[in-house]
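Colleagues,

Please find the record for the two-part complex below.
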Amino acid sequence: MKSGFFGDFGGAFIPEILHETFQRLTRAYEEARADPEFWNTYLRLMENYSGRPTPLTFAENLSHRYRRKIYIKREDLNQTGAHKANNVMGQGLLMKRMGKRRVIAETGAGQHGMATATMAARMGFDCVIYMGAEDVERQRSNVFWMERLGAQVIPVTSGSRTLKDAVNEALRDWVGSMDDTHYLLGTACGAHPFPEMVSWFQSIIGSEAKAQILAAEGRLPSHVYACVGGGSNAMGIFQGFLDHPEVTLVGVEAGGAGLESGRHAARLASGAGSVGVAQGYKTFFLQNADGQMLDTHSVAAGLDYVGISPILAHLHATGRVRFEAATDREVVNALQELMRAEGLIAALESSHAVAQALKELPTLPEEAVVIINLSGRGDKDIFTIADALDDPGWRRFIRKKAASYPPIEE
Amino acid sequence: MSRSLPLEPFIRQRLALRAARGDAPILLMSHLVLGYPSLDENRRVIDAMAAAQVELMELQIPFSEPIADGPVIAQANQIALDRGFRVAQGLAFAAECAQRHPEVAFLIMTYGNILIAHGVERFIRRAAELGARGLIIPDWPPQEADLPMDLCRQQEGLDWIQLFTPTSTDARLNEIGQWGRGFCYCVARKGVTGSRTDFDGELSRFLARCRRATGVPLAVGFGVRSPEDIRSLTGQAEIAVVGTAALEIHLREGAEAVGRFFESLRPTT
């Protein structure tokens, strides 16, 4: 029986040793999904713990500037400052239902690991985060919080010492620990049931946004913009509007140094991605002619990923979602424009959606109503953003701060 | 001599040959990662293993996302790619090996995406033409693999190898076992099968479950390192797979030492 396919994409291309583990997770997920009380519990938890529903903020100044109505879905106001909370809390509840007491997760830049660590602290689970040794070095602030929250951060030194090695290490752990452990995947990718399950938890964004725009405008939006790394925040908001073909859905990928430079992570918008199977699922990957995955680049670590949700790959194939790319430069400019115009500090990831919307707004009909999904806030990423903005005062501060510590004893 | 013999008859014939000589009825299968540390080194170690009468050799074409491999092999994949390994080189090398050592059964191990990028049909035809006897594709489970399994069946002498693991239920083993061709590969990775103290008993119970699930021979990979390991497998499986241990010896002591290592593994009866 083939399951977990979306058109030609998805599936579960996993080593046999994981087969039973995924079967058990799929059963638990399907039972939870069929139980309305589970979803009600989830909604109550997100309301009480993560401030949901998050506002749909009318961007008054930008709307005035661009002469079209612009609304911003405020996922940045979630617990830990991003839509990641929706997924980790949902899977946390699923863990309780399954009687698991230990959670493991992979993390790249550290946001998903940190969100998982908060969930584990709140729900009383043991928590182990696998993180590439290089990422541990680069993302000290997130490692700091994970450890303070009580998680054990394990630097992974195999392979390329980055995200994919962390995923492999987490899977190895899971094979031997399934009885008491849940593997909490961070995005709508990977083997079935993860793409579908993560999208389900994230659909809370789209259902709120739909009700909110109808209340504010009495009609659906003409355009919805969301950034796409793995694709969970985009899947989240798009699900509110998929059944309304009159709503244009735009997924914005990382254009990096520009599509022609080859240094980007635009699997669909660049036309450079091709269909393959890796990391447990079938989708569009950036790969060479031999089928080896390529290095990707983005100013936003969360979009710097070689694959894309199989559900989005399918929506690309059917033409329901249009994919575009925003370059690092456009993104940094958009981040500053939104900050100055509305006082909102967007994450670099989310600023991709902002950048693409600002590019297209002047060409849209004047009656356009646009929603931008602001998937995360940027102030927590001050180290990365200050570097991206090349802020001289910040550099001076870091130098002085470093000088104030005694030298490292090797 | 047995160049054209398909895998299962090849295995049965070699077992019979050993039995006739009074040797323990178990074959050895080695594993190596192509391009690691280099194709030249691969060639040397294959020559040494052939001289040591290793019957089957698994040639792994490196992939950037080796999700079924442990850290040591995963790292070898990455290093081979960093050094510029290309799939076309690997296939040419496998063809060379099959010609040079007709007495050895070569199998190609890799991940599904290598086949997909090459063209699944083209890859399978090429593998059969170059003389490979089997394909081991650990991230392509049988329920997703109708197409490549069909294509293999259309090729004379190329089998799609099924994998058994200790986490598989009996029902699942039976489901996989019915697709078994050539042999079934029992992956009993250390640290996965549970408590170390009961490892032998647990392995035996696992192999007994595998045996009930299929009629084809069984190959076992579980970190074989010593003649004692091989001896304990004799009678429970037809093939002992030696992977990481040989790689470590190769890196530490060179290609010839791998030949001596394999000779030392043969149980004396």
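Residues 191-197 of chain B have pLDDT under 50 and may be disordered.

Comments are welcome before we finalize the supplementary table.
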